[in-house]
Each structure stands twice: as C-alpha cells, then as structure tokens.
Amino acid sequence: MLQIGAYVVGILVLSVVGDFAPQSSSYFSRPDNFFNAYFVKLGWGWTLLVSGLFVFVTSYTYSCGNAVVVKNQMTRLVLATCVWYGATSSFLLVEERLGICAVGTKFLNKAQCLAGGFRWKGFDISGHCFLLVWNGLFLIEEGKAYLGWERIREMIRNEEHLRLNTDPGSEERAERATVLSKLSLDEFLHLRRRYLAHTPKVRVLFCLMAALALLWDGMLICTALFFHIMIEKVVAACAAVLLWFVLYRGIYVHPSWSPGLPGEGPFKYVNFKAKQQAYQRKQDSAAKNKAREGGGHTCNHHRHWSSKDDLPKFMGMPLYGLNNAPKTPPDGESSDTISPTVTPGPSTSSSASAYDLSSVPGIRSARRPRSRSGSATRLASTSKASLGRSW
C-alpha cells in the first residue's frame, strides 16, 4: 500500500510542479529521447518478456510436475496483457468521443482532423502514465514468488532427512511431517532436481525485474514532470491502481475459481506476512513492553510450546536422536537418575564412552560403516544416489 500512495501522491505533486514550472529543455523532456523511444513505448513488451520468463521458471519448479499449476500462473500474464490493451484502447476512445478538432466542426473525427494537418483537442488520459504505474505494480506482485524461495533449500534438506530415516506410514514420520511430506515421491524428486537447476536463473530474472521496476519509476517521474496535464495523469494512475486492486486483492485471492496469487502450488513457501499475523505480533510486542515497564513477566498465550522447539540442530539439520538423550542436571544439583558415586576406571575407556553416541537412538556409530539398506524400502525404487546428493 505504501507503493500505491507514493504513485498517486507523487504523480499529483510532480504534475503540479510541472504545470507551473517554465518550459524545460532537458533531454528527458523530449519525446524522442532514448529511454522513451526504446523502453517506454515498448514498455509492456519488456515487462512481459522478463516477468514471463520469471513466472514460468518459478512455477515450473514449485509445481512439482503439475502442468495445471504452471498454466494457472501463466494465465495471470494473459489477463494483465488484456488489462493493458483494454485500458489504453479505452483511453483513445474517450479522447475521440469527448474531443473536437482545432478548426471547429469541419472534421468530425480524430482521424480526419489529423489527416487535415490540424490538432485534435480532447481529454487525453495518459497512456504512458497508466502503463508505467501498471508495470510497477505488476512487477511487485509477480516478484513475490521469490519471497521464501531460498528457504526451499532447507525444506528439501529436512524432508530428505526425514524420508531416509523413517519408514513410510510410520507414526514417527507423521509426527515429524514437514510442509513437503504431502508430496509424492515423484513430486519431491522433481522439486529437488528443478530447484537446484533453476535457482541461479530465478535470481538473475528477479534482478532484471528489479532493474525494470527502477527504470519504470524513473520514467514515470519524467512523464509526470514533462508530459500531459495533471488531471490526465492522475486519472491514469488511479485507473491502474483500481485495476490492480480488483485483480490482486479481489479475484486472485480466490484460487478455487481464479489463477491464484504468485507462488501458490502444491506446497506453501511464500512467507508473505498476513495482516492478522502482523497485528498479532504488534499485540505481543505491546504486551511485552507493558510488562517490562511494570517489572512483571509476560505470558504469551498465543504461543504453544511443543517438543519440536526442544529439538537440537546442527548446521540447520535436526538431530532427532538427541531429542531423547538423557539430560545432565545443572552444577550443584543432584538427580535421582544419577548415581552419587562413580567407580573410577581407566581414563582411556571413560573418555571414549563419553563421546560414543552409538547408544543414542537415531545416531549411527562412527566405528561401524554407515548403512542405508533400509532406504530401498523407505523410498521405493528411488536411487539412493539421487537422494544422497550433498547440498
């Protein structure tokens, strides 16, 4: 919403400045400047090219082989093109219907007036202003598919570890299920292969989208300062914002009968912050500040502690076996489970037993060769080499 306010208010202020400022001789005030001739006039083509590649590569990756997901994501590009073409065509229609030739009623339409060498006076809603605002909002929305993209790597690693170390259909796997656990084996392998192969391309395309968005914002400033009158630019910007709101806040939020929002597929990875989550964090922060000022303690009733919170990790990998390991009491305290007397023994054997984790469930001993004989049963006919690839 901050971007929308910046567009509308910025165009309004810059238009007023441009209307009252003296005629500028700047290079960017010329309609034939390089950026206007080769980028703005072909603005939707550049936007569609870069964003189309980005949407296709990302959706093909997180679709897990589901062609319907890719089709739905690409449908948004078709609808956005229809919006651009329909809006700019309607602007030309409004100008012709509400205008008049500079020489009076001798020429009754715009084509005849221009062919006679005269100027057509009408309400010329800025098509460039609409295009630049629409491009900026469109790139911002479609770029949200990159939010949480880098987290997919960790999600795949955790799911791979779970599938290799638990039996299919077991209660242990159900308790430790991840967001990828509902995927079939083929879907999981598709995601794993495509994510590794396409992530560099996704990063490059996302950077190109960001560069295009900056270019469109810069050219929007030039349009607001040097071209059209204020009302024509404000109406165009409001039309772009209205159409964006109808599509991305009114239609796409219903995936049952619409293409859905960017990043929607067989699993959820986009960490876009919902309003209720932000409101909940604000409430929790206010409660903590209030308790801190009063010298008391806070109790977050909305946070439910589970056994997963106590799960130790090493380099992001959960150590499931250590979750059941016996805990050592603090210094100075006694425990009923620990004998008060310790029988001394050889220092070598006691030191070795202190670091021997073979007795801890889920941790393989370093003294015996690592075995994955059960992985054939756990992963059906999947190659162990495919899932054993290091990250």
Strand content: under 5%
Mean pLDDT: 77
Specify the helix fraction band: 55-70%
How would you describe the shape? elongated
Oligomer: single chain
The total count of strands amounts to 4
The radius of gyration over CA amounts to 31 Å
Could you state the order of secondary-structure elements as H and E?
HHHHEHEHHHHHHEEHHH
Measured distance between first and last alpha carbons:
38 Å
User: Helix- and strand-based class?
Assistant: mainly alpha
SS element count, helices: 14
Which residues sit in consecutive blocks of at least 5 with pLDDT less than 50?
Answer: 274-279, 296-303, 332-391
Sheet bearing the most strands, described? 2 strands, antiparallel
Tell me what you see in this structure:
By secondary structure, the chain is mainly α. It contains 14 helices and four strands. It has a two-stranded antiparallel sheet with strand order 1-2. The protein has a two-stranded antiparallel ribbon with strand order 3-4. The C terminus is likely disordered.
Secondary-structure map with pairings?
Layout: H1 2-20, H2 34-40, H3 43-62, H4 67-97, E1 100-101, H5 110-115, E2 120-121, H6 127-142, H7 151-165, H8 171-175, H9 185-226, H10 230-251, H11 275-294, E3 313-314, E4 317-318, H12 347-354, H13 375-378, H14 384-387
Antiparallel strand pairs: 1-2, 3-4
Helix pairs in contact: 1-9, 1-10, 3-4, 3-6, 3-9, 4-6, 6-9, 6-10
